[in-house]
Amino acid sequence: MRLDFRDILNYGLFLPPQNGKAGKFLQEDRLLKDYPFSDSVGHLELKYKQRIYRNLPANLSKLRKINSKSNLRHFLSLVRYGELEKITKLLEKGVDPNFQNRDDGETPLTIAVQLPKPKAIIMTLVAGGAHLDFRSADSYTPLHKSAISGNYEAIKVLLDLGQSPNTRDSNGLTPLYHCMLNDTSAMCAERLLFDHSVIGITDSAGLEEIHQACRFGRVQHLEQLIAYGADINSQTTYNGNTPLHFCAYNGQESCARLLLFRGANRTLKNRAGHSAYQEAVLANHVATANLIRDFQDEDIGMDAFCVTIHNRLHKLAYFNMSRNFEKFECLPSRAVVELITEMGLAVGVPQKIQACVKFFKFADCNLIS
């Protein structure tokens, strides 16, 4: 028998009501053994994810009317404009926030996570029955959308609400992988890694997160991946390129320097028989080629570490240091601005912060935005 499912990725396992408890959908990435079941589970149902009404409205015709196509379009518009009070009222009337927009395939929650200040809207939608893993038409969960747009606040809220960082899209890619593909803050990647995002996921071409970070020259992201255990000598499935090969081919000198200081193997060859140095020469990236050729093995491990400049609430900047250092304290914001400006960085609105920075010679300096 053939079954035709619409929007197949939004089907989930549903635990029916039992022992006076309401039914619920099980999370995709959570094992059954991780649920605190007090007794054996009789059966699970495969159902399309919908809102679970704790108190089902007596008038079902009104419920169908409130979930009409026109009302759902209006609801999406309210989410786009952050109309919190109106969203709350419609949810109280019974709107089911688990649906896709017919025009662009977005859901209320995938729209909300792209707002500048999304926390209140996300919390309201989830409290109103929105599922954390309900996907848009392009197979992305709200966490994927948060990672793609670089919305750190949305990532934090979703993870705090229990969303797994290892949810996959239709291509098997995680939110962390999408952080590497998009020009977003390294803080987003750091938060996903902190919440135990897996490393080593590959795309259809066999590239892992670390290859993508080197391909696009994302030094801060690369720093985070290495700190959480990414393999700096990992070779791609099809052509055998290492992260250093990607740096060489794309002329990403800063990433190449970081890899070398962390002990990347310069002698590994890809399937074409080329070392990273040879790839840099062939691509006419002279500076990167010279860096790889002239690097001394005794300098491995001498690139120092990440140091964070922060105020009480937010990280403002961090630096990758070189081997020699001295310690000093920056009290007024002007001193920090002068320090950062001297290192060639763009500076936003100065803030009064305190920082203890170790530095002598900077290998790379980048603001976390």
Automatic annotation (TrEMBL):
One Pfam family per UniProt: Ank_2
Top-level taxonomic group: Eukaryota
Molecular-function annotations in GO: ionotropic glutamate receptor binding; synaptic receptor adaptor activity
Protein name per Swiss-Prot or TrEMBL: Uncharacterized protein
Taxon lineage: Eukaryota, Metazoa, Spiralia, Lophotrochozoa, Platyhelminthes
Record keywords: ANK repeat
Signal peptide range: none
Keyword DNA repair: no
Membrane-traversing stretches: none
GO cellular component, one term: postsynaptic density
InterPro entries (UniProt xref): Ankyrin_rpt (IPR002110), Ankyrin_rpt-contain_sf (IPR036770), SHANK (IPR051569)
Residues in ANK repeats: 104-137, 138-170, 205-237, 239-271
Alphabetical list of SUPFAM superfamilies matching this protein: Ankyrin repeat
Keyword Ribosomal protein: no
